[in-house]
Amino acid sequence: MKVELVRNTENGVALVGDAARLSGFPCGDDGKIIDIMVENDYSSIIEHISFTFRISDISRALWMEILEHRIASHTAKSQRYVSYKDVKYYDPKFSGGKAKEVYDAAVKNCYKAYCELVDMGEPMEKARYILPNASHISAYWTINARSLINFINLRVCVRALPEMREFALEVLRIAREAYPQIFDKVGCRKYQNGNVCPEKRKKCPGVI
User: Fold this and answer.
1) Rounded to the nearest 10 degrees, how much is the dihedral formed by the CA atoms of 183, 147, 51, 39?
2) Residues 21 and 59 in one domain
3) Does a structural domain hold residue 33?
4) Do residues 38 and 128 share a domain?
5) Any alpha helices (H) in the chain, and if so which ranges?
6) Domain count along the chain
7) Nearest in space to 46 (alpha carbons), one of 73, 16, 11
8) CA dihedral of 89, 154, 159, 64, whole degrees rounded to 10
């Protein structure tokens, strides 16, 4: 998995400060405005800040979960127009060697059948139906800061799909580097909610 920040809003803290003052917010310091907005969840104003990520080598299964976060823009590698003959696939790290053997054999059989169909002259848009959810894809993902906070709150949870949690933690790391004023205060929902997990899971570590 590779996650790259392609672009983000420049001078976003000043932009949010200007927008807040325009709306009648009394505080004049941009940094204090950001702190108040994040701490009190006045978060619609930070939608003016956005991030565009290039994501590589994630499974189709993970991409479908990312698409559940609808307030974002998505563009993924096509299975209709792009060949998947040489595509790699996700390894979910099975606990036993026999399980991995079964998994690898099944995925490779899917790719073998896909290649045979394409070589027979069948269009890729038909052959793609046999491709497994494990298939690696690449995509661009653009999301505003408010929606990204919601995404991180949900997806860095220790109960998240392991591949999803790996992705969310990397996105959080990148977002913290770009806008520490906002994302240093962001974590899982227990972290954000004063050490109280909304799913009432007392053993949840709430670490982030």
Assistant:
1) -30
2) yes
3) yes
4) no
5) 12-22, 30-39, 60-66, 97-119, 124-127, 145-155, 162-178, 180-183, 189-192
6) 2
7) 16
8) -30
201 belongs to a structural domain: no
Q: Are residues 144 and 125 in the same domain?
A: no
If asked whether residues 129 and 141 sit together in one domain, one would say no
Which of 112, 134, 156 is the endpoint of a domain?
A: 134
Alpha helices (H) in 23-161, listed in sequence order: 30-39, 60-66, 97-119, 124-127, 145-155
- Whether the CB-CB separation of 134 and 85 falls below 8 Å is answered with no
- The pLDDT tens digits for 90-144 are 999 998 889 999 999 999 999 999 999 999 999 999 999 999 999 999 999 999 9
Dist. CA 117–CA 4, nearest whole Å: 34
* Structural domain boundaries, residue 87: 82-134
Name residues whose C-beta falls within 8 Å of residue 129's C-beta, 6 or more positions apart in sequence: none
Among residues 60, 128, 146, 155, the one annotated as catalytic is 155
Q: Is 131 helix (H, G, I), strand (E, B) or coil?
A: coil
Residue 127, pLDDT score: 96
Positions in the chain whose pLDDT score sits under 70:
200-208
Q: Which helix (H) or strand (E) holds 75?
A: strand 72-76
155 is catalytic: yes
pLDDT of residue 56: 96
Q: Please, what is the average pLDDT of the chain?
A: 90
Asked if 49 and 99 sit in the same domain, the reply is no
Q: Which CATH number belongs to the domain containing residue 31 in this structure?
A: 3.30.1360.170
Give the pLDDT score at 203. 62
Question: Is position 205 within any domain?
Answer: no
